[in-house]
Each structure stands twice: as C-alpha cells, then as structure tokens.
Specification:
Strand content: 25-35%
Strand order of the largest sheet: 3-4-5-6-7-8-9
Mean pLDDT: 90
Low-confidence stretches: none
Number of strands: 14
Distance between the termini: 46 Å
Shape: globular
Helix content: 25-40%
CATH topology of the largest domain: Fructose-1,6-Bisphosphatase, Chain A, domain 1
CATH class of the largest domain: Alpha Beta
Order of helices and strands: HEEHEEHEEEEEEHEHEHEEH
Structural class: alpha+beta
Number of domains: 2
CATH superfamily of the largest domain: Fructose-1,6-Bisphosphatase, subunit A, domain 1
Length: 270
Amino acid sequence: MINHPINRQLLSEVEAIARAAGAAIMDIYSRPIAVTEKADQSPLTQADHAAHHLIEQQLSRLSPLLPVLSEEDTAAFSGADAQSRYWLIDPLDGTKEFIKRNGEFTVNIALIEHGKSVLGVVYAPALEVCYRAAINLGAEKIDAQGQVTQLHVATHHPGSPWRLVGSRSHGGDAMPALLAQLGEHELVPMGSSLKLCLVAEGSADVYPRLGPTSLWDTAAAQCVVEQAGGSVVQLNGDTLSYASTEQLLNPYFLVLGDNQQDWPSLFRAS
C-alpha cells in the first residue's frame, strides 16, 4: 500500500524505476537481439523480461501490498486492491521498434485509482526522453540534457492542416477512410506510447487509434495527455477507462488536444 499521497516524491521514485528499466533494456539493445513469439504471435525479447522483473521488484519495495498488472505476467494479477488501485506497466512498449532499432520504444508505468490513470511515467531510453505526470501536478517532459518543460496540448486553428500521429507498425484498415474525410493534413508515423506524448507536448493535434492496443499500452501516457490538458476518449465519447481488467484490450480511441472539433461524431458519421 502506498503510505504517502500522490506527490512529486512518488513521481520521482517511479521515474527512477522507469529509468533503471530503460538502462537494462539498453544493455540488451547494444547486443544481438534474440526474438521469440508469444501465443498471439507478437514478438518477445530478453529486454521485455529484464525490464519486467526489475520494475516488479522495485515497485514491490515501493508499495508492497499494491497489485501489479504487467504485460509480461498477466496471470499473477489478482485484481485491484480494496481501494481500487493497482500498478499497470508495460516493461517494453514498442518491441517491434526495439527489434528494428529505431529508438521508438518506451517503458510505461501507471498508477490506477478507480479506473483512472492518476500517475504516469513514459521513458524512452534510446532517446533519453522522459514524460511524467500525476493528477494535480501537471505534465512534464525531461529531455536528454535534463531540461524540464511543462507540457500543454496545442489548439488547432480552423483552416490549418490537422497534424495527426499514427502507428508506425499498426496502421489499421480504417485510417485511409478517415484521412480522406479530413482533407489537408499531416501524418507523422511513430512507435509505442510516444504517439500519445506527441499530442501531450503539442507536436500533434490528434492520434486516432483504430487498431488493437492493451491497457498497459496507454495508461501511463494517458495520464500525461490528460494532465497536459488533452483527452483520451473512445469513439462513443467516453473517457478510456482502466476500471475493468477482465478485458485487457482497449476499444478504439482518440487522443485529442484542444482541437475544437467533435471527433467522435466524425467517426460515427463515417
């Protein structure tokens, strides 16, 4: 159980865990990468395992009684605690990008309370960039030089091209139809949860996700987006939630800055 409130000390401790996991990943990144397949045919590497074990051990020291749901050991998760809290982690988000060695992979650690991501750290070890946020504390980006920047989503101005970010490895069959409706736009491909973070920092207006993702892919970055003034909503307009872990897959969703458009209606009309 966490014995202190959600504050900058806790955020810094979780960031340190993410950075330690990132160091373990980069140690393996520097060597030949052995790849196996999970039951769903998604790739798995030694780095996934190493980061998982490190994060799990360090979170257990930080909060011994708080359950952990990790992509790499879903069977060990018995549910949220009596206060509806749990850690939700993706030890290596963007394994395909890791294998491609393009740097677009992250460590994701989120704290969930009553279905909401109330603290999130997204660390991209190859880029040495960290995004962090917590409820009532705002969202920040820490670059490779240690410079800290407060994050705010961008406002899209009518008549200017929409700046969209999309998955580098999972485009989705519905994207071409959406793009055709938008007219003039810019589409930036990106891997892992960095897509959400680009919206949070104002580098993109919207990230439509029309393909499969899991709870651990989005939770940490969703906190960053929301604390930067944006939103992550399902196509019906409801906020993406982590209250139920019986279904590990997310519905399709939209990551929105201050876009002045009813994007869910656009999808329902398509």
